[in-house]
Every structure is written in C-alpha cells, then in structure tokens.
Specification:
The chain is α/β, with parallel strands linked by helices and 318 residues long. It has one domain (2-181, 219-245, 282-298): Rossmann fold, CATH 3.40.50. Helices cover 35% and strands 17% of the residues. It has helices at residues 11-22, 91-112, 148-168, 192-201, 221-233, 250-261, 286-292, 300-314; strands spanning 2-6, 26-31, 50-54, 69-72, 115-121, 171-177, 180-181, 206-209, 215-217, 219-220, 240-242, 247-249, 267-270. The strands form 4 sheets. Strands 3-2-1-4-5-6-11 form a 7-stranded parallel β-sheet, with helices on both faces. It is globular and about 55 Å long. It starts with a strand and ends with a helix. The model has no long low-confidence stretch (mean pLDDT 96). The structure holds uridine-5'-diphosphate.
C-alpha cells in the first residue's frame, strides 16, 4: 500500500512509518513540525519508499499520488500547561488539527477510496467514572474544561469519521490510544515519562504531582504500533482501545524509573497539576483482544530499559 501519515515526525507517527516501511509499504509523510521533530525522521532520508511534505493538515492538502490508506496522527497531545508544545499553549491549532485536519483527510479518503485510520485518545473518556474504560463508555468530559481543546477535538473527529463511514461508505478505523512511552518522545513536552526519566538520568529527585495516587497504564510504543497496524489491516469500524491494562499509581511509576536507572535521589512532591487531572485511567482491551488478537508484551521495566539509550543520547550522556 501507499500510506499517508500525518504527524509523521511525531513520536507515534515516526514509529508507525518505520514499522509500515518494514512491512513493505510506501509512506508519504506530512508534518508542520509544530510539535514533531525532523530528528525523528532523519534516518528515513534517502529511503526511496519514503517521501515527505512539510504541510499543515488543517489547510487544504493536495496529495499528488494515489494513496491506499491515510493515518491521521497530526495533533499536539501533551496536557502539560508549562510545555510549549502542549495543547494548552496551542489550543486553536489543536482544535484545527482534530476538526479541519480530520475533515481534510476524510475528504481525500472519500475521493481516492482510501482506508482512513483516526488516532483518537483515552482523553475522550475525560476523568472517567467507569473503570476500566470500555469503548462503550461515553465519558465524563467538560466542553469548557482545561483539557477540552484536545478531548472535544478528538470527540468531534470520531463523530466526523463515523459520519463519513455511515454516509459516504468511507472505510474507516478509530484507535483510542492510552498513555504510551518509548524512544522519540519529546523530552521537553512535560509528560510523565520524559520528565521523570530525564530527572532520573540526571540524578535528580523525580517530580510527582499531588500525592502520586492518581493512576495510569503505560504501553510501550512497539506494542501500541503493533495494535494500530493490526487494526488498520482489520475490518473493524467502531473505536478500539489500544493500551496496556497494567495500572499503577504515578508514585509506583516513579519508583520503577528510579529502580531501573539506579537513581538514588528519590522523589519530590509537587502541587497537583489541576483538579481535572484524571484520577484513574486503564483501558479495557477486551475488544482489541477479541477482534485483533492483540495484547501488549513488553513490561514496564523492560520498556524503560529500551527507552533509556534515546534519552541518554539526547542528554549527551551516551
Ligand atoms: N506527572 C507527574 N510528574 C511529572 C509529569 C506528570 O506526577 O513530572 C503526572 C501527571 O500529573 C498525571 C500523570 O503523571 O497524573 C500522567 O501525566 P502525562 O502528562 O504523562 O499524561 P496524562 O495521562 O495526564 O494525559
């Protein structure tokens, strides 16, 4: 297949490009580098199966070649208010990438008869009052809350995707992505793994927000990409959760990072991020298991070990 990936220079987009190239596909990548980095795709320069266009997918996109599939991954995604590349500081771009960007991609898919896969998110569940979260759970979100620009854009994107599927018969897929980590994460985007692993490698105390009892479930990037590609190859049109169901508190997560890195500096407690920091999050992956025969394989300590070399290199410690 010839596959268009928007957000190809991002953390997930670049890993998807690598895996799909290895599967024999040709990749047309697009990115405007607002949050993605040229470093993430530098190794693909010269690969004759990879072409790149610097584009903002919120504007009309012209694709010169026939594309068989489109993976729409372009969007800011970090919730950290301090981060320049987080969606708090890119609120309009975030809404445009989810709304206009999705519309543009679906327009191409409709005209060209391409398959379309939307990168959605566990954030569409908001601060959930059902636990773990199955795809049938409609969410607990606030349209004017602090995370609204991201979660409402993604909710709109899901609705638009289903509308194109139901009304125009576009061959669509929707993946709801839960917390993921691995090499090529933006070290400055303020999320839990980049912040804490960087601190650990520098021998600093790890900053845990609040009392650290809030939970997340962290998936290693190779497992996530494997699930997304299985979904792309499947015939499933309704949303599918992809994430690791092993839930832990952020305090346990920080302790695991200190253990694996041998960091002796401990933990320092900071103010909670906000009252809207989701308190619990864990995917129910029953559907992924049944439909895709998928489940994650890499445990947290192994995933941290695989991520360390990238961070060491970025920090000049390698
Ligand atoms: N967090 C933390 N210390 C940090 C960065 C994040 O305790 O230095 C917490 C944050 O408050 C949240 C969790 O880690 O409860 C996951 O945050 P992240 O930004 O990775 O993404 P989220 O799951 O909130 O979308």
């Amino acid at each position: 297949m010839r596959i268009l990936i928007t957000g190809v220079a991002g953390f997930l987009g670049s890993h998807l490009a690598d895996h799909l190239l290895a599967d024999g596909h040709a990749i047309i990548g697009m990115d405007n580098f607002v949050t993605g980095s040229p470093d993430n795709i530098a190794h693909l320069a010269g690969n004759e199966k990879f072409s790149f266009y610097r584009r903002d997918v919120s504007n009309y996109i012209f694709v010169p070649d026939k594309v068989d599939a489109i993976l729409h991954f372009a969007s800011p995604a970090s919730p950290n208010p301090q981060s320049k590349s987080g969606y708090f500081n890119l609120p309009i771009q975030t809404m445009k990438a989810g709304a206009l960007g999705t519309h543009n991609c679906l327009g191409i898919a409709r005209v060209q008869g391409s398959r379309f896969l939307l990168a959605s998110t566990s954030e569409i569940y908001g601060d959930p009052d059902v636990h773990p979260q199955p795809e049938s759970y409609a969410g607990n979100v606030d349209p004017v809350g602090p995370r609204a620009v991201y979660d409402e854009a993604k909710r709109f994107a899901e609705s638009l995707t289903m509308a194109y599927h139901r009304f125009h018969n576009v061959d669509t897929r929707i993946v709801r992505i839960f917390n993921t980590y691995g090499p090529r994460m933006d070290m400055e985007d303020g999320r839990a793994l980049p912040n804490l692993l960087k601190q650990a490698l520098l021998g600093q105390p790890l900053t845990v927000y609040g009392d650290g009892s809030q939970t997340r479930s962290f998936c290693y990037v190779d497992d996530l990409v494997d699930g997304i590609i299985k979904l792309l190859y499947s015939e499933e049109h309704l949303p599918v959760n992809i994430g690791n169901p092993v839930e832990m508190s952020i305090l346990q997560f920080a302790e695991a990072i200190n253990r694996v890195t041998g960091n002796q500096a401990g933990i320092t407690y900071m103010d909670a991020r906000s009252a809207r920091d989701p308190q619990r999050r864990r995917p129910d992956i029953t559907r992924a298991h049944e439909i895709l025969k998928w489940e994650p394989k890499v445990d947290l300590e192994e995933g941290i070990r695989r991520t360390i070399p990238f961070f060491k290199q970025k920090l000049g410690l390698a």
